[in-house]
Amino acid sequence: MKLTQSQLAKYMDHTLLKADATAAQIDAVVAEAIGYGTASVCINPYWVARVHAALQGTDIATCTVIGFPLGAATTAAKVFEARDAIAQGADEVDMVINIGELKAGDDDAVRADIKAVADAVHENGGLLKVIVETALLTDEEKVRASRLTVEGGADFVKTSTGFASAGATASDVRLMRKTVGADFGVKAAGGIHDLADAYAMIEAGADRLGVSASVAILEEVGIR
User: Fold this and answer.
1) Residues noted as catalytic
2) Considering 75, 76, 104, 149, which has the largest number of Cβ atoms within 10 A of its Cβ?
3) Local mean pLDDT, 10-residue blocks, the chain (224 residues)
């Protein structure tokens, strides 16, 4: 696989989700995203309004996370968080599923949680990605979580928060792609550090990458 720098950039959610991120660091990430033309900037909800304002006049989306990173907030809290994020200017919302309920086999609870957030996001024209945290799941659970994401009405299934013991793997992306079919979004995130990692995820079926190392990866394209 060989993509141009600008083609690869459009796969990337340029990400800064660290708890100690400062306004200056957020502004630097936005400037990098604009400079390279990434798909979005993904930040914690506190920074949504700032990032949305800074991205005015570009085609770069403002992306944020809710129920993050554990997924164990109530559905009502996730819905409120999603609506508030969109009101502040978020175009895309990445939510974490209720991992405990998935592992306990309560598919109805997981599906209902996703659907409530999907409805809240879609009523305002947003896009919903659902993080299943693959590092904590068996393959059977990954398949169930992916199916429930589709059934819940989301737009993407996403591998990881980047805060668990491991992030995306090509095998997980392939499994998720096989489960959701060709037309549903798959986002790989967590542990994508270099160009080889990025290409491996895309070749496995990812159409979006959550990456904090975006600049290094894109510069690697530029020097080849």
Assistant:
1) 94, 158, 187
2) 149
3) 94 98 98 98 98 98 98 98 98 98 98 98 97 98 98 98 96 98 98 97 98 97 73
Sequence-distant (6+) residues with CB within 8 A of 53 are 89
For residue 1, what are the contacts with CB-CB under 8 A and spacing of at least 6? Answer: 199, 202, 203
Residue 82 neighbours by CB under 8 Å, 6+ apart: 66, 93, 95, 117, 120, 121, 126, 128
97's enclosing H/E stretch is none
Torsion of CA 133, 137, 141, 146, to 10 degrees: 20
Tokens of 191: 């542990």
What is the model's pLDDT at position 223? Answer: 67
Q: 19: which 2 tokens?
A: 């708890």
Give CA–CA dist 135/168, Å, rounded: 8
